[in-house]
Write a structure and sequence with these properties.
heterotrimer, A alpha/beta, B alpha/beta, C mainly alpha, A: alpha/beta, Rossmann fold, nine-stranded mixed sheet, B: alpha/beta
């Protein structure tokens, strides 16, 4: 190809592009939005739906002509990297996104092991990052981390509304706590114990079991004959299911269970043998919702992904609303590149999307969540007003 | 009759037996004598197939070469191995019963009864762990265990090792008695005077080769004998 | 209080019987072949999956358990033929190979079956009262089955011809060969028998606990503690040690701390090695 013809082609393409954007009304820009998450490996059950939710939001925004900043329309383009459920791969993925100078905001990662290296690198590079994993709570709000956000509520935030609802729903008076002997459990036991007391429930014993325990019979015996009516059973599905199953086996133990995890799966098989099981849905209940906004979102999700709703699908709502909020924050800040200004606008913004959500002054999400309940053989959910 | 032709045994580069040939005539006792490491045990172990060997081994017209140990036992060859190799945590009865491992149960029971009648001490100790017996008693159990398979050829490695003189006399008596029943016996023995007392023929081994062969008096009188034993 | 102690004791012997089954296979293979088979735990895991999938497909637990046992018997025989036969006489090679096998089998299982824990429907559920005692139905069933298998296996070793040959071989390989025992064949069969026992233990584990690709690790470590505690190669030692460990864990978790559960076994082992350096039943006394 000769130099002349090449230049001519470039000019032609440019003209076409300009004409195309002119058709949208104004000269359109493109905002690159980074996504990092485990698209493969054991953590993909969280991060694949999370990416799907982001893609839905982006498609919807772009389909409506993009979002406006200072009267100019912008389209969003997602640049995605796979963290492979491993911390080293996650760090590499984060580096790749950081090397693209057009990326000013990154979202993704719902699990702590690959999440921590991503969040720390983003904070160090002063790039705005909205994550979802629990350990993010220890990063958000620290001096120097003003650009770090978490799109899911902290334990404390959820617990405040969760405990009173649970106590009322299950009619609890005296509970025992049986959780793994690890940092996560120790932190949330500290948060939940006083909340139970405030709700008029006596926490008569707390037992920590060795992580990886499969046989709970001996430790469950400690809870026998204590007049308990409920058990608080940690945050991991396999532990919770084993404890429920073995409580029924051992006998003479409470049949009401409070679960800090995000799924009703541990109790499904035992629904007609137990008196109650409650869990936390950190976004919205998709399985048995009566909320019109949720129902409409489900239809859009099915159309966009050609997938059915499964137990993990609700993680797709982690970043869905946050993408819209980001657009509004950029508009309010009048910039798509000044991260400090955008972050400042995001903090304190209240957004009534599929989730009703906001970010506090530190960057922690404060959002309404749903509480999942299995009782009397039925599965349903009730909304928890947090905001 | 047990015939050995050009038998060699080697462990890696170390040749323990170097192409020896000899025969044990029916109903006779032949003793392999020689110092430690002369190749006596290797020869016995090669005959029962515990170690691999080259050459030809024929027992009562049946070629044993290449057969597994259990098949050689089936063809009537039994061995009392070095160290007796009893099952120390099994009772005397179980040890003897295992001697009839390849035989029919009825035959085995019958032989056990006969042996216990012949050696009342076995019956007395029947329920005791073999490991708790005295050395002489253990030797007796080991020989009787080998007899349980009704062998035609019996190989015994060091029948007197570690035994008191009074016990050695008893073992001698037993071997003579077995000899009287027409059993073909090959023993490997370091104790030359014992070997001379029980055997019809002696074969002197040194460094895996036969140095002398003949009646006990012939072999004991030869200068090679003193050389092989005393290294002079 | 007394009632509680009895209940806790029963919990202990129930899991102890499972531990003993796994330790039995390890100690047998070591006693006869001199190989510490670290891949033994994988037979537990694969047996659990075989049972899980059969039960999930609508077959009864009994079909699942029997097929798991037989399948793991075949698996043990294949492992012996393909791998351990080549490492005979070289314990270090055997050790290295079995460690490698753990990695391969576990990771292939994790890739093919996903690492998600699965729970199988047990043939019986709930609990029943015996006087003032409240017993878990499935645990009682597991205890009965595993005790029957252990007792059956012990009787097999004591009284059957092959069982006597196995014991004889563990006490004197040469002596056994000279009475006509085919020592090679018996060595091979012991891999199959040990692995089949582990498969049966796996099916029983699956009826109580979660099935995961990594579930073989705990029974394996415990099996080794037990085999060492009982005196390597000793069948009565391994059985006694299995029940002892079950009791220690059960009483430790109940009356001390549940967060130290797996530590109790090691404490017993350390004390045993200090004060009974040759295992529960002394040096070479209580072999197979």
């Amino acid at each position: 190809m000769s130099g002349m013809r090449w230049k001519g082609l470039v000019a032609g393409v440019l003209t076409f592009a300009l004409a195309g954007s002119a058709a949208l009304g104004q000269t359109a820009g493109v905002v690159k939005l980074g996504y990092v998450g485990s698209l493969t490996g054991p953590h993909s059950g969280w991060d694949v739906p999370a990416l799907e939710g982001m893609q839905m939001a982006v498609t919807e925004i772009n389909g409506a002509g993009g979002f406006k900043v200072g009267g100019k329309a912008y389209r969003i383009e997602i640049v995605q990297e796979d963290a492979q459920s491993k911390p080293d791969a996650a760090a590499t993925a984060a580096q790749k996104l950081l090397s693209d100078e057009d990326i000013h905001v990154v979202m993704g990662v719902l699990t702590s092991v690959p999440g921590v290296p991503v969040a720390t690198q983003m904070a160090k590079a002063k790039v705005m990052y909205i994550g979802g994993f629990t350990a993010m709570d220890g990063i958000v709000g620290k001096p120097g981390n003003e650009l770090s956000f978490r799109a899911l509520d902290t334990d404390d935030t959820v617990a405040k509304g969760f405990v009173p609802v649970v106590v009322k729903e299950l009619g609890l008076k005296k509970v025992g706590i049986l959780v793994p002997n690890d940092d996560v459990s120790k932190t949330f036991v500290k948060a939940y114990q006083p909340l139970f007391s405030q709700a008029g429930v006596e926490v008569s014993m707390v037992e920590f079991f060795q992580p990886g325990t499969t046989d709970f019979a001996p430790v469950l015996r400690k809870f026998q004959g204590k007049g308990l009516d409920g058990m608080f059973i940690g945050y991991a599905d396999p532990d919770a299911e084993a404890i429920i199953r073995q409580s029924l086996e051992v006998g003479d133990l409470p049949k009401k269970f409070v679960y800090r995890g995000g799924s009703g799966a541990p109790a499904v098989k035992y629904a007609d043998k137990i008196d109650g099981f409650v869990w936390q849905i950190l976004t919205r209940d998709l399985a048995s919702s009566s909320d019109e906004k949720v129902k409409a979102w489900i239809d859009r999700y099915k159309a966009a992904t050609k997938k059915d709703i499964v137990a993990n699908t609700y993680w797709a709502l982690t970043f869905y609303d946050a993408v819209f909020m980001l657009g509004k924050a950029m508009d309010a800040a009048g910039t798509t590149t000044d991260q400090a200004a955008i972050a400042a606008k995001l903090k304190g913004m209240v957004y009534d999307g599929v989730r009703r959500m906001s970010f506090d002054k530190d960057g922690h999400a404060v959002t309404d969540v749903d509480i999942g309940i299995i009782k009397g053989g039925k599965t349903y959910s009730i909304p928890e007003k947090v905001l | 009759m047990l015939e050995i032709e050009n038998l060699s045994v080697s462990y890696g580069r170390n040749e323990a037996v170097r192409g020896i040939s000899f025969a044990v005539p029916d109903a006779s006792i032949v003793a392999l004598v020689g110092a430690n490491g002369a190749g006596k045990t290797s020869t016995l172990n090669a005959i029962t197939g515990l170690v691999s060997s080259s050459g030809r081994i024929v027992s009562n017209g049946r070629v044993l070469t290449g057969l597994t140990t259990d098949n050689r036992v089936r063809l009537g060859v039994a061995q009392v191995a070095e160290g007796r190799q009893l099952f120390p945590l099994m009772s005397v009865r179980e040890n003897l019963e295992l001697g009839g491992y390849l035989c029919r149960a009825a035959e085995s029971r019958q032989r056990l009864t006969v042996l216990m009648e012949r050696f009342p001490v076995l019956a007395e100790r029947a329920d005791q762990f073999a490991g708790t017996l005295s050395g002489g008693e253990q030797q007796m159990v080991a020989i009787c265990r080998a007899l349980m398979s009704a062998p035609q050829v019996l190989l015994i490695d060091e029948p007197c090792l570690g035994l008191a003189p009074i016990i050695i006399r008893k073992v001698t008596a037993i071997l003579r008695e077995l000899h009287g029943t027409g059993l073909t016996i090959l023993i490997a023995e370091q104790n030359a005077s014992f070997a001379a007392a029980v055997a019809d023929r002696l074969i002197l081994l040194e460094n895996g080769r036969i140095r002398a062969e003949g009646s006990p008096n012939e072999v004991l009188g030869q200068p090679q004998f003193r050389q092989a034993y005393l290294g002079v | 209080m007394l009632l509680d102690i009895i209940q806790t004791g029963l919990d202990g012997v129930m899991v102890g019987s499972l531990y003993a089954m796994v330790a039995l296979g390890i100690t047998l293979v070591f006693g006869l072949v001199g190989i510490l088979n670290f891949a033994h735990g994988q037979s537990v895991m694969l047996g659990a999956y075989v049972c899980f999938f059969l039960v999930s497909a609508g077959h009864s637990f009994w079909v699942g358990a029997i097929v798991a046992t037989l399948a793991m018997g075949v698996f043990g025989a294949l492992l012996e033929r393909a791998v351990f036969r080549r490492t005979l006489g070289d314990p270090f090679a055997g050790l290295a190979v079995s460690l490698g096998l753990i990695m391969i089998i576990e990771n292939v299982a994790a890739a093919a079956l996903t690492p998600d824990p699965r729970f199988m429907d047990a043939p019986v559920s709930g609990n029943f009262a015996v006087g003032p005692l409240l017993l878990s139905s499935q645990r009682s069933l597991v205890f009965v089955i595993s005790s029957a298998l252990i007792l059956g296996f012990w009787l097999f070793l004591q009284y059957s011809t092959l069982g006597k040959a196995i014991r004889a071989m563990s006490q004197s390989r040469q002596g056994a060969a000279l009475v006509g025992v085919r020592v090679d064949t018996v060595s091979r069969s012991i891999f199959a028998v040990g692995s089949a026992l582990a498969g049966a233990a796996g099916a029983l584990y699956a009826s109580l606990f979660a099935v995961t690709p990594f579930m073989g690790a705990a029974p394996l470590t415990k099996g080794f503690i037990l085999a060492a505690l009982g005196g390597l190669g000793s069948v009565p030692g391994a059985i006694a040690a299995g029940f002892l460990l079950g009791l220690a864990e059960s009483f430790g978790s109940r009356y001390l701390s549940a967060s130290f559960r797996d530590g109790y076994g090691f404490i017993i082992l350390i004390f045993a090695l200090l004060f009974l350096p040759t295992g529960l039943f002394g040096a070479g006394k209580a072999r197979v």
